Amino acid sequence: MATARDLRTRIIHSVGSSLIATALLAIGAPPIGAQADLGKALIGKWEGEVGGQGYRGRDRAWFLVIESVKEGAAEASFGPSLDRLVKTPVTLGHDGTAPTLSFSGGGTPWKLTLASDKVMTGTAVLPGTGSQREFPVRFNRAK
Question: What domain range includes position 13?
Fold first, then answer.
């Protein structure tokens, strides 16, 4: 038979575990099993375009091919055309509401957020623009 002290200890551990789980979800930590879902959402070919006034770079179109997703990282290739892709390590994160991707490609840092299963949006600071100005980018999942 459990003593009052045993019951109190079980309750404290149970409540503590629940509070930790709630805190992790509140700060945007992905739940268990989310890694497989993230891989499913990201793996594939993405076609991107640089927007914004003032961008005069020669490459408006960019391609990101995500081959695999591991905890906190993805293996990908990136470039201005499918025949000019370069292996590019991608760091994965979470902004509290959606998964994020950060990488350096084409001589510039890129920051993307997964907006839906078919769209990533973000920014890039592109070379040859005369300043360190961020330009909006949008990547659509290729068919």
Answer: 1-30
